[in-house]
């Protein structure tokens, strides 16, 4: 299978094999695997929105400012890169928009294709309708299914919190293998593959979805058991990542292994606390559980000692979640003395189970409906009290990184104030681009374009 074919199909395993066996393939110009033109591999990865593949190509030495070829646009424009806050920039043609992807940063809108006239926008909308799978009725059960494309982040370091090996899914060990996400039916679907130990260790998902938020977390708002969220105070994210919401999940034997999920609107560090949360309702106590957080389900706050669900709910639509802890493969355990041994990324990508949730975009937006063009997520696995982080972060940490602890060097300090992700190479978050609203098409014209589109697809050049 040729490199561009594998990229078009999202087959990251074959992409890695081809780049290893035939590294010269990365810069070859040739027929498009899906339609006309002669792009490079980076062109195809960019327009398909395969962020992990773009990073892989660049890491293998692909020239981002290569020739335009017959495709009419360059994958990389230094002028656009200079306008970005960090990283390298790759132009993405995706669902009717030209976007600027920041390698090591976020995705931001560049030039709407509408400026080139209504026909390209119409054709882009037509292709989107033809090739985009529908997410209606998707089961949120903690397993990867067709709604997800290639991984947006893959683990690069073996876990420092123990390798899960229990055949029944209940036992020691926890790891984060890869992250997948998709936007369907005005909802964000996210799957984090891996395992959570049933000792109340917490999977933390910080979401940057709207203007505002915090780059360095403050002690407020205070929530979770005896207000232990205050241990996050001082933790700093990558430049440009400003956390708006915090979702955290856990389970443990002391409460019958009931899986629990809470979601808090941190409200830019305000003392006003809004949050929703609930426990699983299906498969309770087993390694496969699922549930729904209703808009009326209050989140976990604290009134002195212990925990009480007394936060003010903010959701307008339910949040569905699923958990499947049966994985026994993946990245494996960190060797003694933090030997710089890379994780088995192929094994990480092969894992198909973990934690999954679905949330309405409306509940990720600001008070006036404001949303970024891409939703950024930082995922971290830590201890129950939010004061000791493992090395399981997505986007992942550099090769050889051991547990971060509370100071970034593996030491326990009682809080996470010493962790500064901006000082760690690479982005410790990943981006989920939001598709633009579809342009309205008059019904007779839509029918004509459908026929024309099908004819175009039938007559596209045959691959050699």
What does this molecule look like?
By secondary structure, this protein is α+β, with helices and mostly antiparallel strands. The protein is built from 8 helices and 16 strands. The strands form 3 sheets. Strands 7, 8, 9, 10, 14, 15 and 16 form a 7-stranded antiparallel beta sheet that branches. A 6-stranded antiparallel beta sheet has the order 4-5-6-13-12-11. A 3-stranded antiparallel beta sheet has the order 1-2-3. A hairpin with a 2-residue loop joins strand 1 (88-94) and strand 2. Helix 6 crosses helix 8 (443-458). It is globular and about 65 Å long.
Topology (elements, then pairings):
Layout: H1 3-8, H2 12-21, H3 41-48, H4 51-59, H5 78-82, E1 88-94, E2 97-103, E3 107-112, H6 118-131, E4 153-154, E5 175-184, E6 187-195, E7 202-208, E8 245-250, E9 260-265, E10 274-279, E11 288-293, E12 319-324, H7 345-350, E13 354-360, E14 374-382, E15 389-394, E16 430-433, H8 443-458
Antiparallel strand pairs: 1-2, 2-3, 4-5, 5-6, 6-13, 7-8, 7-14, 8-9, 9-10, 11-12, 12-13, 14-15, 14-16
Helix pairs in contact: 2-4, 3-4, 6-8
Short descriptors:
single chain, seven-stranded antiparallel sheet, globular
State the end-to-end CA separation.
11 Å
Structural class determined from secondary elements: alpha+beta
Radius of gyration: 22 Å
Q: Which word captures the global form?
A: globular
- Element order, helices and strands? HHHHHEEEHEEEEEEEEEHEEEEH
DSSP helical segment count:
8
What share of the residues lie within helices?
10-25%
Question: Are there runs of 5+ residues with pLDDT below 50, and where?
Answer: 77-136, 438-464
What fraction of the residues are assigned to beta strands by DSSP?
Answer: 15-25%
What can be said about the biggest beta sheet? 7 strands, antiparallel
Average pLDDT confidence is 79
- According to DSSP, the number of beta strands is 16
């Amino acid at each position: 299978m040729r490199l561009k074919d594998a990229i078009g199909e999202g087959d990251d395993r074959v992409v890695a094999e081809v780049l290893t066996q035939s590294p010269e393939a990365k810069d070859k110009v040739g027929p498009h695997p899906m339609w006309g033109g002669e792009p490079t591999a980076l062109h195809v990865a960019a327009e398909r929105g395969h962020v992990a593949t773009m990073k892989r190509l660049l890491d293998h030495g692909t020239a981002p400012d290569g020739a335009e070829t017959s495709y009419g646009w360059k994958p990389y424009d230094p002028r656009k890169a200079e306008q970005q806050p960090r990283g390298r920039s790759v132009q993405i043609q995706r669902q009717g928009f030209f976007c600027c992807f920041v390698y090591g940063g976020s995705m931001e809108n560049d030039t709407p294709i509408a400026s080139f006239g209504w026909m390209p926008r119409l054709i882009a909308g037509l292709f989107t309708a033809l090739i985009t799978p529908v997410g209606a009725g998707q089961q949120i059960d903690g397993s990867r299914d067709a709604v997800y494309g290639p991984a947006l982040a893959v683990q690069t370091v073996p876990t420092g919190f123990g390798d899960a090996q229990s055949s029944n899914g209940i036992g020691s060990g926890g790891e984060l293998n890869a992250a997948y996400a998709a936007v369907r039916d005005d909802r964000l679907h996210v799957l984090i593959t891996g395992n959570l130990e049933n000792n109340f260790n917490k999977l933390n998902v910080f979401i940057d979805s709207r203007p505002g938020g915090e780059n360095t977390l403050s002690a407020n708002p205070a929530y979770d058991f005896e207000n232990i969220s205050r241990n996050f105070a001082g933790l700093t994210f990558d430049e440009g990542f400003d956390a708006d919401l915090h979702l955290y999940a856990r389970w443990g034997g002391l409460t019958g292994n009931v899986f629990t999920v809470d979601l808090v609107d941190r409200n830019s560090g305000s003392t006003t606390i809004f949050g929703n949360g609930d426990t699983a309702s299906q498969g309770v106590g087993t390694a496969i559980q699922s549930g729904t957080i209703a808009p009326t389900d209050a989140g976990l706050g604290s009134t002195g000692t212990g925990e009480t669900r007394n936060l003010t709910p903010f959701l307008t639509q339910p949040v569905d979640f699923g958990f499947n802890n049966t994985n026994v493969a993946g990245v494996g355990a960190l060797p003694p003395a933090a030997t710089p041994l890379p994780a088995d990324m192929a094994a990480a990508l092969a894992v198909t189970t973990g934690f999954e949730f679905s949330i309405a975009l409306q509940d990720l937006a600001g008070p006036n409906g404001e949303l970024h063009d891409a939703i950024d997520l930082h995922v971290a696995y830590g201890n129950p009290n939010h004061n000791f982080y493992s090395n399981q972060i997505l986007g992942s940490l550099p090769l050889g990184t051991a547990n971060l602890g509370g100071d970034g060097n593996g030491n326990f300090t009682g809080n996470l104030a010493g962790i500064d992700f901006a000082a760690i190479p690479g982005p410790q978050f990943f981006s989920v681009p939001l598709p633009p609203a579809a342009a309205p098409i008059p019904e007779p014209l839509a029918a004509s374009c459908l026929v024309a589109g099908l004819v175009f697809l039938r007559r596209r050049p045959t691959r050699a």
